[in-house]
């Protein structure tokens, strides 16, 4: 629910920004200081855009793990942030690249043996890829396009447990003496997996000015993420890893600056 609220806030902020800038754009156009490109459709020759993405996903076995740890289950979506750079190749086609990153965190507390423990599960997703976009429809300042990103991503799952501020002796205690008899109250584990991914999208763009536009899109992700291939400290873990499923729809809203 928190992630949904973050996306709603982003949409509200974007709408307010558009409403604030629209009178400025009209005033600039009326006095001739900034003019749209004649009567023809407005489009970018090159652009940089920053956007927020709500990517739905299924946490799978992490839901059960969170329940066993006594903390809230992961949410149904992850907020990612995108940086996209595109350059026009001809009247309809643009190519470029995109970087993305984000995470979903759930935390909670546990009281045991007279001590209070903090626990956490955080899922990180980051990556980059090659982008190609085709402008299918242009109506004045509005453009409808389709795009495809081909790239790679890195998924990681981070687990943490601690009972507050730790001393040096507590931090190093797990590495001295007999491991079988060493109590561990503070521990951190991170497992990672690389994957190939495809992200087709349908995009809508509305120009506030020649050089600035609001963008929104809906897309779907295909990837090679599965329960095999997970690594801990660059060593393959035995057995199967978490069954995260990101082959789900995602929704993006952002601001583009271009020429």
Brief characterization of the structure:
The protein has helices at 2-31, 61-69, 168-173; strands at 46-56, 77-88, 93-112, 115-139, 142-162, 187-209, 212-220, 222-223, 231-232, 235-236, 249-258. The chain is of the alpha+beta class and 259 residues long. It has one domain (2-258): Porin.
Descriptive report:
The longest helix has 30 residues, at 2-31. Strand 2 and strand 3 form a beta hairpin. The protein has an eight-stranded antiparallel β-barrel. The protein has a single domain (2-258), classed as Porin, CATH 2.40.160. It has helices at residues 2-31, 61-69, 168-173; strands at residues 46-56, 77-88, 93-112, 115-139, 142-162, 187-209, 212-220, 222-223, 231-232, 235-236, 249-258. With 259 residues, it is α+β, with helices and mostly antiparallel strands.
CATH topology: Porin
How much beta, percentage-wise?
over 45%
**Biggest sheet: strand arrangement:** 1-2-3-4-5-6-7-11
Helical content class: 10-25%
Largest sheet: 8 strands, antiparallel, barrel
Could you tell me the number of beta strands? 11
CA radius of gyration: 23 Å
Low-confidence stretches: 13-22, 31-39
Instruction: Name the CATH class.
Output: Mainly Beta
- Distance, first to last CA: 38 Å
Question: What shape does the CA trace take?
Answer: elongated
Number of helices: 3
Q: How do the helices and strands follow one another from N- to C-terminus?
A: HEHEEEEHEEEEEE
Identify the CATH architecture: Beta Barrel
How many structural units, i.e. domains? 1
């Amino acid at each position: 629910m928190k992630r949904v609220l973050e996306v709603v806030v982003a949409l509200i902020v974007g709408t307010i920004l558009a409403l604030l800038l629209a009178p400025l754009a009209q005033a600039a156009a009326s006095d001739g200081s900034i003019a749209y490109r004649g009567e023809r459709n407005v489009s970018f020759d090159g652009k940089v855009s920053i956007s927020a993405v709500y990517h739905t996903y299924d946490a799978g076995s992490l839901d059960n793990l969170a329940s066993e740890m006594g903390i809230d289950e992961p949410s149904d979506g992850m907020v990612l942030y995108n940086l996209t750079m595109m350059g026009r190749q001809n009247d309809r086609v643009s190519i470029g690249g995109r970087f993305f990153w984000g995470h979903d965190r759930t935390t909670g507390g546990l009281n045991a043996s007279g001590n209070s423990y903090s626990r956490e599960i955080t899922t990180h997703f980051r990556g980059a890829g090659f982008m190609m976009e085709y402008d299918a429809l242009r109506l004045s300042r509005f453009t409808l396009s389709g795009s495809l990103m081909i790239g790679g991503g890195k998924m990681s799952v981070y687990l943490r447990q601690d009972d507050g501020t730790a001393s040096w002796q507590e931090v190093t205690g797990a590495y001295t003496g007999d491991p079988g008899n060493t109590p561990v109250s503070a521990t951190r584990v991170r497992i990672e997996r690389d994957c190939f991914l495809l992200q087709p999208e349908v995009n809508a763009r509305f120009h506030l000015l020649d050089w600035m536009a609001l963008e929104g899109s809906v897309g779907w992700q295909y990837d090679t993420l599965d329960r095999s291939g997970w690594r801990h400290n660059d060593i393959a873990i035995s057995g199967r890893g978490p069954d995260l499923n990101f082959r789900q729809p995602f929704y993006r809203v952002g601001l583009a600056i271009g020429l």
